[in-house]
Specification:
CATH architecture: 2-Layer Sandwich
Shape: globular
Strand content: 15-25%
Order of helices and strands: EHHEHHEHHEH
CATH topology: Alpha-Beta Plaits
Helix content: 25-40%
Bound molecules: inosine-5'-diphosphate, magnesium ion
Strand order of the largest sheet: 2-3-1-4
Number of helices: 7
Largest sheet: 4 strands, antiparallel
CATH superfamily: Nucleoside diphosphate kinase-like domain
Number of strands: 4
Distance between the termini: 15 Å
Radius of gyration: 14 Å
Length: 139
């Protein structure tokens, strides 16, 4: 059914700070079920492919360098209205502008090292989930 999955990454800053557990707890508490999950490290080339839409932005080099600087957790999450509800749970891109109680407000270090990724549309959620996971890895 359209609209019920989103894709997330727990980014290198949050992994480094031992915040995988607290972030997954917030995700579950907010009503998301984990459909697929893996702990891995992206190469700079893979990070560049994932963030291809941003390749003309001035921060693209910094972003791909950062996203390949350490391990991440990638996951597909299930919930009604998953994309919008997850964007609400994570908060604004810039943690200084994120609402109180959001994942980025609580855990992000900066606008680049902002703790988590969340898909911005149903179409991109499907593309991003397919980039990381086969059908055999979804439960
Ligand atoms: P989003 O993750 O909230 O959807 P996007 O605009 O899609 O934000 O940007 C993708 C990622 O690029 C952000 O999560 C952040 O890590 C990084 N980023 C966005 N804007 C900046 C910036 O101005 N400087 C450095 N990094 C940025
Ligand atoms: Mg985005």
């Amino acid at each position: 059914m359209a609209g019920n999955i989103t894709f997330t990454m727990i980014k290198p800053d949050a992994v480094e700070a031992n915040n995988i557990g607290p972030i997954l707890a917030m995700i579950n508490k907010a009503g998301f079920r984990i459909l697929a999950m893996k702990y891995m490290r992206l190469t700079k080339t893979q990070a560049g492919m994932f963030y291809e839409v941003h390749k003309e932005r001035p921060f693209y080099g910094e972003l791909t360098e950062y996203m390949s600087s350490g391990p991440i957790v990638a996951a597909v999450l299930v919930k009604n209205n998953a994309v919008a509800d997850y964007r609400k749970l994570i908060g604004a891109t810039d943690p200084t502008k994120a609402d109180e109680g959001t994942i980025r407000k609580l855990f992000a270090k900066s606008i680049a090292a902002n703790a988590v990724h969340g898909s911005d549309s149903d179409e991109n959620a499907a593309i991003e989930a397919n980039f990381f996971f086969s059908q055999l890895e979804r439960f």
